[in-house]
Amino acid sequence: MKQSQVPVLHDFLFFIETNSNGEIILGSSNVAGTYWQGTLFHYKDYQFTKDNEYNSYFISNSTISDAKFILDDFMLLAEDSGSLKLLNLPENEKQLMECRYNYNKDDRLIELTVWNNTKIASCTETYINLYDITNGSSIQSNTIFKNYHTDTILSIDANKLDENLFVSASADRKACVWDTRMDIPATVIYNNEFSSLTNVAWNPLNKDSLVVASEAGDIYILNIKEPTEVLCSTHCFDGSIYKMLLAEDSGSLKLLNLPENEKQLMECRYNYNKDDRLIELTVWNNTKIASCTETYINLYDITNGSSIQSNTIFKNYHTDTILSIDANKLDENLFVSASADRKACVWDTRMDIPATVIYNNEFSSLTNVAWNPLNKDSLVVASEAGDIYILNIKEPTEVLCSTHCFDGSIYK
């Protein structure tokens, strides 16, 4: 049997990747026929994937395991033969990608991860390679970490918010966080008692948060500041989890119009774009709303159901992510916020210094807050430790009552 001379979309799909421009790469391999090989397809837009209207392609004489976008016109392809190829996108459509550089290894490349256009990593059996990409012309291995894991490393992911950090998951049932600045770079953040760990992914919005998946179909949410502690877990499938992706929020605030007829699509009347994730909204009335985003708060006016105007921004009163915000329905000048910095603040928009700390938890992040709808001075704050605190703004820093409700974080 000979290698195919035309691109074939094989039955076994191994990966799909997108970039910020909406382009897609898709990798498939023939692992059931006589001649094992792989094909990488590049699409300009997801709509072209429906009928396999590819922009360019690459045919490998080996099955393929992963690929990543880098630079503007390049991508990296990992082959099961152990080759790491630097491919150049052609100028014309329906053309073969050019292999600009081929880096050969002895063992199968299982997964790739990318920090930026020049720094990447791969996992291979029980070791991890870090590479530098030079001007789209070569691949140089600069660091190898060996034998920290005792079985095959099945997944690796770079921390896009910190170029010194990455995380790995292995068949030895351990997940490790790696800091390349340290003499002993790897720290075990999670150890599953029964099951291999098959995939891992950082939270793209929080450099301390990550998710690990197991062969048993479970997902575990972890935080590197609390090693060996599972913040949350859930059983998703009755089989192994192969790939995960944590999506970034777009940061859009949309004004939607309800249709007259049932079962109809809502109309987007106005779209207000922000740079950061919108965590929570709160409303005073039909025209005045607020949102919390990272460490700042936005106030908006809604104009005749046709536009959204930001009129005030409060920045950096909290020192960590604001997790909850609630408007006082009995006083349009007041709202309250709760933050991962362990503080709850009452805000009065009439004041020169609008924020006053009403409660400071010694140990735990504050995850949610709500006003009493019948008493404008009374409110409730919830913590990551599962506790609830009843407060009164006339007695700041005093807890009127508290109770432990759950053995985990209170979300709403």
Topology:
Layout: E1 12-18, E2 24-30, E3 37-43, E4 56-60, E5 64-70, E6 74-79, E7 83-88, E8 95-96, E9 98-104, E10 111-114, E11 119-124, E12 127-134, E13 138-146, E14 153-158, E15 165-170, E16 174-179, E17 186-191, E18 197-203, E19 206-214, E20 218-223, E21 230-235, E22 252-257, E23 267-273, E24 280-283, E25 288-293, E26 296-303, E27 307-315, E28 322-327, E29 334-339, E30 343-348, E31 355-360, E32 366-372, E33 375-383, E34 387-392, E35 399-404
Parallel strand pairs: 4-8
Antiparallel strand pairs: 1-2, 2-3, 3-4, 5-6, 6-7, 7-9, 10-11, 11-12, 12-13, 14-15, 15-16, 16-17, 18-19, 19-20, 20-21, 22-23, 24-25, 25-26, 26-27, 28-29, 29-30, 30-31, 32-33, 33-34, 34-35
Keywords: Cytoplasm
GO cellular component, one term: methylosome
Subcellular location: Cytoplasm
Describe this structure in words.
- The protein has 412 residues and is mainly beta.
- The protein has three domains: 1-106, Beta Barrel (Lipocalin), CATH 2.40.128; 148-248, TolB, C-terminal domain (Neuraminidase), CATH 2.120.10; 252-404, YVTN repeat-like/Quinoprotein amine dehydrogenase (Methylamine Dehydrogenase, Chain H), CATH 2.130.10.10.
- It is built from no helices and 35 strands.
- The chain has a five-stranded mixed sheet with strand order 1-2-3-4-8, with no helix packed on it.
- Strand 6 and strand 7 (83-88) form a beta hairpin.
